[in-house]
Amino acid sequence: MKQQKTALYILITYCIMQLSGVVFAPLLYKLFIAMDLKNSELLASGWWIFLSMGIATLMTFLIIRKDKTFLKPLKGQKSTMSGAIGWGIIGFFLVFFGQGIAAYIELTLGVEPGSENTAQFIEIAHSVPFAIFSIVIFAPILEEIIFRRIIFGTLLPKTNFFVAAMVSAIVFATIHFEFTHILLYAVSGFIFAFIYYKTKRIIASIISHMMLNGFVVLFQFYGEAIQKFLETYSQMP
Predict the structure, then answer these.
(1) How many domains does the chain have?
(2) pLDDT in tens, 152-181
(3) What is the pTM of this model?
(4) CA-based nearest residue to 86, from 215, 211, 226
(5) Which of 44, 114, 203, 235 is most buried (CB neighbours < 10 A)?
(6) Which domain holds residue 16?
Protein backbone atom coordinates (compact mmCIF):
# COMPACT_ATOMS: atom_id res chain seq x y z
CA MET A 1 0.00 0.00 0.00
CA LYS A 2 2.81 2.39 0.86
CA GLN A 3 4.58 1.65 -2.44
CA GLN A 4 1.35 2.38 -4.32
CA LYS A 5 1.09 5.79 -2.64
CA THR A 6 4.74 6.50 -3.44
CA ALA A 7 4.15 5.56 -7.09
CA LEU A 8 1.06 7.78 -7.22
CA TYR A 9 2.92 10.77 -5.78
CA ILE A 10 5.73 10.31 -8.32
CA LEU A 11 3.26 10.07 -11.21
CA ILE A 12 1.50 13.23 -10.02
CA THR A 13 4.88 15.01 -9.80
CA TYR A 14 5.73 13.90 -13.35
CA CYS A 15 2.35 15.03 -14.73
CA ILE A 16 2.66 18.43 -13.04
CA MET A 17 6.14 18.79 -14.53
CA GLN A 18 4.80 18.03 -18.02
CA LEU A 19 1.85 20.41 -17.71
CA SER A 20 3.79 23.22 -16.01
CA GLY A 21 5.12 24.38 -19.36
CA VAL A 22 1.66 25.65 -20.30
CA VAL A 23 1.93 28.26 -17.54
CA PHE A 24 5.61 28.89 -16.86
CA ALA A 25 7.17 28.69 -20.33
CA PRO A 26 5.06 31.65 -21.61
CA LEU A 27 5.93 33.63 -18.45
CA LEU A 28 9.63 33.04 -19.04
CA TYR A 29 9.16 33.98 -22.68
CA LYS A 30 7.57 37.30 -21.71
CA LEU A 31 10.38 37.93 -19.22
CA PHE A 32 13.09 37.34 -21.83
CA ILE A 33 11.21 39.49 -24.35
CA ALA A 34 11.09 42.28 -21.78
CA MET A 35 14.84 41.86 -21.28
CA ASP A 36 15.26 42.19 -25.06
CA LEU A 37 17.15 38.88 -25.32
CA LYS A 38 17.63 37.10 -28.63
CA ASN A 39 16.08 33.64 -29.15
CA SER A 40 13.66 34.32 -26.31
CA GLU A 41 11.47 31.36 -27.24
CA LEU A 42 14.39 28.91 -27.14
CA LEU A 43 15.65 30.43 -23.91
CA ALA A 44 12.23 30.09 -22.30
CA SER A 45 11.92 26.45 -23.41
CA GLY A 46 15.45 25.62 -22.28
CA TRP A 47 15.16 27.13 -18.83
CA TRP A 48 11.69 25.66 -18.31
CA ILE A 49 12.99 22.18 -19.24
CA PHE A 50 15.98 22.52 -16.90
CA LEU A 51 14.05 23.95 -13.94
CA SER A 52 10.94 21.78 -14.21
CA MET A 53 12.81 18.50 -14.70
CA GLY A 54 15.38 19.39 -12.05
CA ILE A 55 12.67 20.17 -9.49
CA ALA A 56 10.70 17.05 -10.47
CA THR A 57 13.79 14.88 -10.04
CA LEU A 58 14.51 16.40 -6.63
CA MET A 59 10.89 15.92 -5.55
CA THR A 60 10.99 12.30 -6.75
CA PHE A 61 14.09 11.60 -4.66
CA LEU A 62 12.42 13.17 -1.61
CA ILE A 63 9.31 11.04 -2.13
CA ILE A 64 11.37 7.84 -2.53
CA ARG A 65 13.43 8.71 0.53
CA LYS A 66 10.33 8.29 2.69
CA ASP A 67 9.73 4.79 1.30
CA LYS A 68 12.95 2.79 1.40
CA THR A 69 11.21 -0.32 0.01
CA PHE A 70 10.07 1.44 -3.17
CA LEU A 71 13.16 0.59 -5.24
CA LYS A 72 13.04 -3.11 -4.30
CA PRO A 73 9.94 -4.46 -6.09
CA LEU A 74 11.41 -7.23 -8.27
CA LYS A 75 11.80 -10.67 -6.77
CA GLY A 76 15.07 -12.51 -7.18
CA GLN A 77 18.73 -12.03 -6.50
CA LYS A 78 19.95 -8.50 -7.11
CA SER A 79 23.14 -7.90 -9.06
CA THR A 80 26.02 -6.39 -7.17
CA MET A 81 26.53 -2.68 -7.73
CA SER A 82 29.52 -3.40 -9.98
CA GLY A 83 27.42 -5.93 -11.89
CA ALA A 84 24.62 -3.39 -12.29
CA ILE A 85 27.08 -0.82 -13.64
CA GLY A 86 28.48 -3.42 -16.04
CA TRP A 87 25.02 -4.34 -17.30
CA GLY A 88 24.20 -0.64 -17.57
CA ILE A 89 27.12 -0.22 -19.95
CA ILE A 90 26.20 -3.39 -21.86
CA GLY A 91 22.64 -2.10 -22.05
CA PHE A 92 23.81 1.01 -23.87
CA PHE A 93 25.33 -1.09 -26.63
CA LEU A 94 22.26 -3.34 -26.76
CA VAL A 95 20.01 -0.30 -27.19
CA PHE A 96 22.38 1.14 -29.79
CA PHE A 97 22.24 -2.15 -31.74
CA GLY A 98 18.46 -2.44 -31.28
CA GLN A 99 17.89 1.10 -32.50
CA GLY A 100 19.98 0.32 -35.57
CA ILE A 101 17.66 -2.57 -36.45
CA ALA A 102 14.57 -0.47 -35.70
CA ALA A 103 15.89 2.39 -37.85
CA TYR A 104 16.49 -0.05 -40.73
CA ILE A 105 12.91 -1.36 -40.43
CA GLU A 106 11.55 2.20 -40.38
CA LEU A 107 13.60 3.09 -43.43
CA THR A 108 12.29 0.00 -45.23
CA LEU A 109 8.75 1.13 -44.40
CA GLY A 110 9.48 4.56 -45.87
CA VAL A 111 9.94 6.48 -42.62
CA GLU A 112 12.41 9.33 -43.01
CA PRO A 113 15.44 9.10 -40.69
CA GLY A 114 16.09 11.78 -38.09
CA SER A 115 14.13 12.73 -35.02
CA GLU A 116 12.39 16.10 -34.82
CA ASN A 117 12.14 15.64 -31.07
CA THR A 118 15.90 15.18 -30.73
CA ALA A 119 16.67 18.03 -33.13
CA GLN A 120 14.43 20.36 -31.12
CA PHE A 121 16.08 19.43 -27.82
CA ILE A 122 19.55 19.93 -29.30
CA GLU A 123 18.56 23.34 -30.65
CA ILE A 124 17.32 24.27 -27.18
CA ALA A 125 20.52 22.93 -25.59
CA HIS A 126 22.60 25.16 -27.87
CA SER A 127 20.75 28.18 -26.48
CA VAL A 128 20.60 26.93 -22.87
CA PRO A 129 23.47 24.49 -22.14
CA PHE A 130 21.94 23.75 -18.72
CA ALA A 131 19.20 21.88 -20.62
CA ILE A 132 21.80 19.17 -21.29
CA PHE A 133 21.47 18.16 -17.63
CA SER A 134 17.77 17.55 -18.27
CA ILE A 135 18.44 15.45 -21.37
CA VAL A 136 21.32 13.37 -20.02
CA ILE A 137 20.58 13.15 -16.28
CA PHE A 138 17.08 14.22 -15.20
CA ALA A 139 15.08 12.60 -18.02
CA PRO A 140 16.69 9.12 -17.69
CA ILE A 141 16.15 9.11 -13.92
CA LEU A 142 12.50 10.16 -14.11
CA GLU A 143 11.63 7.97 -17.10
CA GLU A 144 13.27 4.84 -15.71
CA ILE A 145 11.54 5.24 -12.35
CA ILE A 146 8.16 5.77 -14.01
CA PHE A 147 8.24 3.44 -17.01
CA ARG A 148 10.44 0.66 -15.65
CA ARG A 149 10.01 0.75 -11.85
CA ILE A 150 6.35 1.77 -11.70
CA ILE A 151 4.73 0.49 -14.92
CA PHE A 152 6.94 -2.52 -15.67
CA GLY A 153 7.43 -3.34 -11.99
CA THR A 154 3.68 -3.25 -11.33
CA LEU A 155 2.71 -5.38 -14.34
CA LEU A 156 5.45 -8.00 -14.01
CA PRO A 157 3.99 -9.95 -11.03
CA LYS A 158 0.54 -9.96 -12.66
CA THR A 159 1.63 -10.99 -16.18
CA ASN A 160 5.08 -11.98 -17.41
CA PHE A 161 8.27 -10.30 -18.57
CA PHE A 162 7.29 -10.01 -22.24
CA VAL A 163 3.86 -8.47 -21.61
CA ALA A 164 5.11 -6.11 -18.89
CA ALA A 165 8.10 -5.03 -21.00
CA MET A 166 5.97 -4.51 -24.12
CA VAL A 167 3.34 -2.41 -22.33
CA SER A 168 5.94 -0.25 -20.57
CA ALA A 169 7.87 0.13 -23.84
CA ILE A 170 4.79 1.21 -25.81
CA VAL A 171 3.76 3.72 -23.13
CA PHE A 172 7.36 4.98 -23.06
CA ALA A 173 7.32 5.39 -26.85
CA THR A 174 3.91 7.07 -26.88
CA ILE A 175 4.81 9.67 -24.25
CA HIS A 176 7.53 11.04 -26.54
CA PHE A 177 4.81 12.10 -29.03
CA GLU A 178 6.86 11.14 -32.09
CA PHE A 179 4.70 8.45 -33.62
CA THR A 180 6.67 8.07 -36.86
CA HIS A 181 9.55 6.72 -34.74
CA ILE A 182 7.45 4.81 -32.19
CA LEU A 183 9.30 1.58 -33.06
CA LEU A 184 12.64 3.21 -32.26
CA TYR A 185 11.49 4.35 -28.82
CA ALA A 186 9.65 1.08 -28.10
CA VAL A 187 12.77 -1.00 -28.83
CA SER A 188 14.77 1.20 -26.47
CA GLY A 189 12.12 0.90 -23.75
CA PHE A 190 11.97 -2.90 -24.12
CA ILE A 191 15.75 -3.23 -23.73
CA PHE A 192 15.79 -0.89 -20.73
CA ALA A 193 13.14 -3.14 -19.14
CA PHE A 194 15.33 -6.19 -19.85
CA ILE A 195 18.32 -4.55 -18.16
CA TYR A 196 16.20 -3.73 -15.11
CA TYR A 197 14.77 -7.26 -15.03
CA LYS A 198 18.20 -8.84 -15.43
CA THR A 199 19.85 -6.89 -12.61
CA LYS A 200 16.84 -6.16 -10.35
CA ARG A 201 18.40 -2.70 -9.94
CA ILE A 202 16.87 0.42 -11.50
CA ILE A 203 20.31 2.07 -11.52
CA ALA A 204 21.36 -0.30 -14.32
CA SER A 205 18.71 0.87 -16.78
CA ILE A 206 19.28 4.48 -15.68
CA ILE A 207 22.96 4.14 -16.62
CA SER A 208 22.05 2.68 -20.04
CA HIS A 209 19.55 5.49 -20.62
CA MET A 210 22.00 8.20 -19.53
CA MET A 211 24.72 6.80 -21.80
CA LEU A 212 22.33 6.69 -24.76
CA ASN A 213 21.14 10.26 -24.29
CA GLY A 214 24.69 11.42 -23.62
CA PHE A 215 25.90 9.79 -26.83
CA VAL A 216 23.12 11.46 -28.83
CA VAL A 217 23.95 14.88 -27.39
CA LEU A 218 27.69 14.38 -27.99
CA PHE A 219 27.11 13.27 -31.58
CA GLN A 220 24.69 16.12 -32.31
CA PHE A 221 27.09 18.71 -30.90
CA TYR A 222 30.36 17.34 -32.26
CA GLY A 223 29.31 14.90 -35.00
CA GLU A 224 30.82 16.90 -37.85
CA ALA A 225 34.11 17.41 -35.99
CA ILE A 226 34.30 13.68 -35.18
CA GLN A 227 33.60 12.76 -38.80
CA LYS A 228 36.29 15.13 -40.08
CA PHE A 229 38.77 13.70 -37.57
CA LEU A 230 38.02 10.15 -38.69
CA GLU A 231 38.35 11.12 -42.35
CA THR A 232 41.68 12.81 -41.68
CA TYR A 233 42.90 9.86 -39.60
CA SER A 234 41.93 7.35 -42.32
CA GLN A 235 44.05 9.27 -44.88
CA MET A 236 47.16 9.20 -42.68
CA PRO A 237 49.88 6.69 -43.76
Answers:
(1) 1
(2) 999 999 999 999 999 999 999 999 888 888
(3) 0.90
(4) 211
(5) 44
(6) 2-235
